[in-house]
Design brief:
The protein has 359 residues and is an alpha/beta fold. It is built from 13 helices and 14 strands. The radius of gyration is 20 Å and the shape is globular. It comes from Haloferax marinum.
Amino acid sequence: MRYLFFTNTPAHVHLYKYAVRELQQMGHEVLVLGRDYGCTKDLLEYYELPHIIYGSCGTTKYSLFKNLPFHYVNIFREVRRFKPDLIFGMGGYAAHAGAVSRTPVVLVIDSEPTSLDHVVSRPFAKAILTPHTFGKDLSENHYQFRGFKETAYLHPDVYEPSVDIRAELGLDPDEKFVVVRFNAFGSHHDVGHRGFTPERRAELIEMLSEHATVFVLDESEERRDGDVDTRPFDFHPALVHDVLAEAELLVADTQTMVTEAALLGTPAIRSNSFVGENDMGNFVELEQQGLISNVESFDEVMERAESLLTDPGTKAEWRARRDAFLADKVNLTEVIVQVALNYGSVEPIESLSRHTVPA
């Protein structure tokens, strides 16, 4: 069979990378259509996945919408050329490629706020797969799995550190370090949302640097922490999970990396305007399990971060919580491969069930 995967962001590359390799090893033809956004292209090349870049996009909403027509032209051309039997993706690009080519589409969706994407993509999906924590009912063909999209690549069955990351970073064996991640808020689902202000970023980094070495990953165009003592992220982006696994703490105003830290047993503090009464289901559950802190107040961010960094038992406690949490969660890569081999049919797969909105 011929399978087509869409990777519009770096997280999508991680989501599908092991499934692509496994299907290739079985003798199937596989193509990845990727967008040159962030480090997506670098990751596709690093993992040597068979891919074509259909277009580029910056970190602003204007860049996305300006390039949208060119993206679709290139996507439709490549779909007609490749002639897939089944398409996997996370939204409109994959759904519309399937509609134009009359190819079944399986969508893996994990973000409730992307309502526009849901509206324009779900009518064309043969199946929609979401985490068990997903807080919306999207359609009759909406199924759930126990886990998150990140369990496709951070489940204990598939994740192993690839390098001695401390040596890679130039750190001493017992040197404590913290990762700080700032979002650009340039995606369509980020419209109207915000994270740390430049002034608070500098204040946060200054406090963290009193307790540990600080690495800053900043997508924003408003960075103002040049006078603060930090270490640059000068390693390949494919190593970021090895970095997170060894870190004492992640503080972020973004989303995906927070879940990744939790699944690696690293405490994470998340603070942005998504946090609150209508927060996304995966972050609510991770907080209930004691793996992350969803914090609205900046003062609370500072207090929580300092408390975690000064408690010598934090890391061991979080690893134990992570192990307990993942005990009944699926390896999503296995699920994706099973769906692929079933030509997009999900009913026979035991690890999938009809979606029900969590109480």
